[in-house]
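User: Sequence recovery, please. Input:
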């Protein structure tokens, strides 16, 4: 049986897609940061920024998080996953108690960059909380869209960048 060139190409592309699998590309699931006081941190991420708590749970003593974050076994962990816009559980806070979190001074090694609305209002609220911020900066994306951004350091030294497309 002979197929037309278009049908042959279609069958080839279909077999290629199937061989790669449905989720062939990397996909970012969530950002998870360590905090010393979950409730205080939720004041920022839930009340001010507008994320929605999906769940809060106490981690078991054999949780994988102990190994991942190099947390001492005597520490207690409480985990909150938060929805960010339509993305379910895209951001997480892991509270560590019974162990002191290291100071995050000097050069910052990582940040979460989060798209928001009402940037200036959120900026004012972050300032009112006494958190360290940068000034609001205006720039353009590589595609030419104008945006505003600023960063802040949360209560535990985590660097967060917030931006709003204009």
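Assistant: Recovered sequence (166 residues):
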């Amino acid at each position: 049986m002979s197929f037309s060139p278009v049908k042959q190409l279609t069958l080839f592309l279909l077999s290629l897609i199937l061989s790669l699998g449905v989720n062939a590309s990397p996909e970012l699931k969530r950002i998870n940061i360590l905090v010393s006081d979950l409730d205080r941190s939720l004041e920022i991420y839930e009340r001010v920024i507008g994320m929605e708590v999906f769940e809060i749970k106490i981690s078991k003593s054999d949780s994988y998080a102990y190994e991942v974050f190099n947390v001492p076994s005597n520490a207690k962990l409480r985990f909150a996953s938060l929805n960010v816009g339509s993305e379910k559980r895209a951001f997480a806070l892991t509270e560590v108690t019974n162990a002191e979190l290291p100071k995050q001074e000097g050069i910052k090694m990582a940040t979460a960059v989060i798209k928001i609305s009402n940037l200036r209002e959120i900026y004012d609220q972050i300032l009112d909380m006494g958190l360290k911020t940068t000034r609001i900066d205006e720039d353009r994306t590589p595609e030419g869209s104008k945006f505003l951004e600023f960063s802040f350091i949360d209560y535990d030294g985590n660097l967060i960048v917030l931006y709003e497309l204009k």
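The radius of gyration is 21 Å.
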